[in-house]
């Protein structure tokens, strides 16, 4: 009986001990788990570096047009200085403009503008009439020099001015003498005061004989004297301009010396380069080839008073419309 009882007791004891061990192990695991939870630090916040945006990209107008029109571009690229912040000063950008494209050169005409033949009109008629009278006057001047003709007052003045200018070897000095002599010999009088019309282009000898004239008359007389002094006709132009400083139409003479166009103005004794006259808006250029228009794409072409044979509005009531007057504006 005793043996049976001990055999049954041993398994119970084993079960109790095993249960205790399992319980202790569970407690230890729970305790360790708790300690692990307490030991874990707070999750660190990950700092993501700031994303650097790409620098501003600049496009040239050639790039925009080339992409829009889907044109093929040249293989050679032209470097252009880039515009940007101070950090990228000196950087370079490349333009995809075709290498064959070139900027046209500046014209060698006055004011750096190209000219083209003007349509037939009143200016052509007036200029042809003045040229015909100048040709006849040159014969009279030659006769006066040879003593075969009686010299008029205008012819004597013309010869004196020509001799004074021709005695100087320097071209610019000859031009300055002619500009000074004509300005001093002629007193400005409007054509309406002198002829009773809005504008009348007088020949050189007519102007020098009368001793009066307006801006076109000064310029025409100087043109004839420069021709007589040996200046090439291709280097002389009668120019009709709009003087924006005084808001008036004006006429001056242009002469090319050493590749630069100088202006002879009846209001000044000094010569001025066309580039130094920003208040002049050039409209017409006239020479031995005829009447030309200045190409001015930046502005609507203005109407010069010489293109019309109508009197100014302020004077039309005094002298009628002015229609049909010879060589009138």
Question: Which descriptors would you attach to this protein?
Answer:
329 residues; alpha+beta; C8orf32 fold; 2 domains; seven-stranded antiparallel sheet; two-stranded antiparallel ribbon; 11 strands; 16% strand; globular; disordered N terminus; disordered C terminus
Fraction in beta strands = 15-25%
Give the strand tally.
Answer: 11
Can you write the helix and strand succession as a string?
HHEEEHHHEHHEHEEEEEEH
Please state how the strands of the largest beta sheet are arranged side by side: 3-11-10-6-7-8-9
**Helix proportion of residues, in percent?**
40-55%
Q: What is the name of the CATH architecture of the largest domain?
A: Roll
Q: Characterize the main sheet.
A: 7 strands, antiparallel
Distance between the termini: 158 Å
- What is the residue-averaged pLDDT? 73
Net shape: globular
The CATH topology annotation of the largest domain reads as: C8orf32 fold
Total number of domains: 2
Q: Can you identify the CATH class of the largest domain?
A: Alpha Beta
Number of helices: 9
Radius of gyration: 47 Å
* Unreliable spans: 1-7, 29-34, 71-105, 297-301, 310-329
Structural class: alpha+beta
Write the layout of secondary structure elements.
Layout lengths: L1 H38 L21 H9 L8 E4 L10 E4 L19 E3 L4 H25 L6 H14 L4 H15 L1 E2 L2 H5 L8 H7 L1 E2 L1 H14 L7 E8 L4 E10 L2 E5 L7 E2 L6 E8 L2 E5 L18 H7 L10
Parallel strand pairs: 4-5
Antiparallel strand pairs: 1-2, 3-11, 6-7, 6-10, 7-8, 8-9, 10-11
Helix pairs in contact: 3-4, 4-5, 4-7, 5-8, 7-8
């Amino acid at each position: 009986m005793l043996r049976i009882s001990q055999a049954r007791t041993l398994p119970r004891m084993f079960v109790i001990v095993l249960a205790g061990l399992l319980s202790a192990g569970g407690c230890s695991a729970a305790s360790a788990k708790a300690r692990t939870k307490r030991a874990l630090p707070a999750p660190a916040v990950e700092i993501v570096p700031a994303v650097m945006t790409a620098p501003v990209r600049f496009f040239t107008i050639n790039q925009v047009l080339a992409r829009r029109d889907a044109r093929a571009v040249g293989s050679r690229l032209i470097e252009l200085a880039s515009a940007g912040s101070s950090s990228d000063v000196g950087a370079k950008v490349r333009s995809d403009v075709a290498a064959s494209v070139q900027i046209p050169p500046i014209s060698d005409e006055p004011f750096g503008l190209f000219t083209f033949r003007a349509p037939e009109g009143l200016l052509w008629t007036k200029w042809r009439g003045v040229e015909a009278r100048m040709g006849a006057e040159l014969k009279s001047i030659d006769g006066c020099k040879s003593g075969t003709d009686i010299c008029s007052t205008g012819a004597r003045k013309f010869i004196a001015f020509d001799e004074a200018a021709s005695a100087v070897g320097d071209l610019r000095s000859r031009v300055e003498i002619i500009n000074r002599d004509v300005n001093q010999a002629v007193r400005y009088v409007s054509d309406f005061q002198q002829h009773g019309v809005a504008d009348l282009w007088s020949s050189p000898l007519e102007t020098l004989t009368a001793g009066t004239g307006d801006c076109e008359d000064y310029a025409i007389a100087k043109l004839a004297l420069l021709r007589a002094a040996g200046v090439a006709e291709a280097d002389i132009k009668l120019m009709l301009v709009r003087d924006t400083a005084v808001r008036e139409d004006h006429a001056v003479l242009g002469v090319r010396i050493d590749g630069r166009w100088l202006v002879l103005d009846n209001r000044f004794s000094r010569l001025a380069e066309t580039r130094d006259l920003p208040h002049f808006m050039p409209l017409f250029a006239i020479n031995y080839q005829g009447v030309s228009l200045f190409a001015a794409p930046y502005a609507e072409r203005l109407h010069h008073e010489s293109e019309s044979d109508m009197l100014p509005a302020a004077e039309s009531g005094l002298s009628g419309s002015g229609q049909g007057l010879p060589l009138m504006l």
